[in-house]
Amino acid sequence: MKIAVTYENGQIFQHFGHTEQFKIYNVEDGKIVSSEVMDTNGNGHGALAGILYGQQVDVLICGGIGGGAQMALAQAGIKLFGGVSGDADAAVEALVAGNLSYNPDVKCNHHDHEHGEGHTCGDHGCGSHTCGH
């Protein structure tokens, strides 16, 4: 299993669409066997789901995330654990152990204020919610 975390200085970065790095963990037999930090190269929002899909990520742990990005992740088959903060390594260890605290209803509210109900990833230059897949 591959687990990605929005990442900054060892911590879970709190805005999925603006993350500059992911830390990707390889988990086998209930243990973290390796990890690496990868740059997003300035890509944002919907394109990030495509990056994770290309890395064959199964699970994402993050802080805040907008509805469009949630849909892109779902279309890519990536399970989301949002509303998480703190140390990235500790969060992955908690997920592997089956006791990660997360918010299943997490939503990044700033999208509602900036774009209204009709928000699409197209507003951010990627064209559609499926651009990452």
CATH architecture: 2-Layer Sandwich
As residue ranges, the low-confidence spans are 111-133
Q: How far apart are the termini?
A: 19 Å
CATH topology: Nucleotidyltransferase, domain 5
Query: What is the name of the CATH superfamily?
Result: Dinitrogenase iron-molybdenum cofactor biosynthesis domain
The global form is globular
**Radius of gyration of CA atoms, rounded to a whole number:** 14 Å
Strand content: 15-25%
Proportion in helices = 25-40%
What's the arrangement of secondary structure elements?
Layout: E1 2-8, E2 11-12, E3 21-28, E4 31-39, H1 46-54, E5 59-61, H2 67-75, E6 79-81, H3 88-97, H4 110-115
Parallel strand pairs: 1-5, 5-6
Antiparallel strand pairs: 1-2, 1-3, 3-4
Helix pairs in contact: 1-2
Overall description:
The structure is a single chain. By secondary structure, the protein is an alpha/beta fold. The chain has one domain: Dinitrogenase iron-molybdenum cofactor biosynthesis domain (Nucleotidyltransferase, domain 5), CATH 3.30.420. The chain contains 4 helices and 6 strands; from the N terminus they run ββββαβαβαα. Strands 1, 2, 3, 4, 5 and 6 form a 6-stranded mixed sheet that branches. A hairpin with a 2-residue loop joins strand 1 and strand 2. Helix 1 packs parallel to helix 2 (67-75). The longest helix is centred in the C-terminal third of the chain and has 10 residues, at 88-97. The chain is globular. Residues 111-133 have low confidence and may be disordered.
